[in-house]
Design brief:
Blueprint (H helix, E strand, L loop, with lengths): L8 E15 L1 H6 L2 H20 L11 E6 L6 E7 L2 H12 L7 E15 H13 L7 H17 L1 H4 L8 E9 L12 H8 L6 E2 L8 E7 L3 H10 L3 H4 L2 E3 L3 E6 L4 H6 L4
Helix pairs in contact: 4-5
């Protein structure tokens, strides 16, 4: 029996872009009312189209959502789910052509892809391939692994290409797995990592795409849920020992139909 790989198989779905902006309120308030109204209407129409996403039967949702950032880290967060990086780039360029764009200063962004780690399935698939006499890394091995994951991919399509939840609040944060001298997530045996990963779920992977390894989006109608969930995670071994967390961004949903309220400072 050859030594089995320690790298779990993963499934990838929607490409995800977070854009964080500051809004130039000083310049905005200097505009005549009719110009502000026209710019607001233009952006509202664009956002409504992005919110609706793909309406074709059997297509991926491919939606976007706007959130009003709470605190000093920014004013607005746009989240985009799309099938490809090219589609995300088209969204960026489309936004750049709007009359609203000169009032937006992008302070940060985060690029990732929806990821499901197949820890338990990987061990079974690797064992089955080894029993057939296949060697890890060979074309036959890779083809066998691809066939096995393709079946799982089809059954998990709704999780890999999700619609944006309609919840009122968003909590977004990036995170890494520790690789210190005494604690290194990646040197733990895959069976041990699988056991620990049952305690939480990573939503989007960004290794090779952005500065952190994963990005996590939490949606809820009660923001206290975020506090309770993250506090509970502190007691999970996978988080307490191996996780490094980045900044947390908390925001409130702004629908296209309510964008005028946001511009007027009356968002409920």
């Amino acid at each position: 029996m050859p030594e089995l790989p320690q790298v779990p198989l993963t499934l990838e779905g929607s490409n995800v872009l977070h854009q964080i902006f500051r809004f130039d309120w000083t310049a905005w308030k200097k505009l005549p009312l009719d110009e502000r109204t026209a710019i607001s209407a233009e952006f509202s129409a664009l956002l409504a189209r992005w919110e609706a996403g793909n309406t074709e039967p059997n297509g991926h949702p491919n939606q976007s959502a706007l959130f009003s950032q709470i605190g000093h880290k920014g004013d607005l967060i746009l989240i985009h789910f799309r099938d490809s990086l090219e589609d995300l780039n088209r969204v960026e360029l489309e936004l750049a052509q709007t009359s609203l764009y000169p009032f937006l200063q992008q302070t940060s962004s985060y690029l990732s892809v929806v990821e499901l780690g197949l820890y338990e399935s990987s061990e079974k698939i690797y064992a089955q391939l080894a029993e057939k006499g296949l060697e890890p890394g060979t074309p036959e091995w890779n083809a066998g692994a691809g066939e096995a994951t393709a079946r799982t991919f089809a059954s998990l399509s709704s999780r890999l290409f999700p619609a944006i939840p309609p919840a009122k609040y968003l909590c977004f944060y990036p995170m890494d797995r520790k690789r210190g001298e005494q604690v290194n997530w990646y040197t733990e045996p895959m069976a041990d990592r699988r056991t620990m990963m049952h305690e939480r779920q990573i939503i989007t992977g960004s290794i090779g795409l952005d500065d952190w390894e994963w990005g996590v989006d939490l949606f809820a109608d009660d923001p206290i849920i975020f506090k309770k969930l993250i506090y509970e995670m502190r007691f999970d071994k996978v988080s307490a020992v191996y996780a490094s967390f980045g900044q947390f961004f908390l925001s409130v949903r702004v629908h296209a139909a309510n964008i005028n309220q946001w511009f007027d400072g009356t968002l409920a």
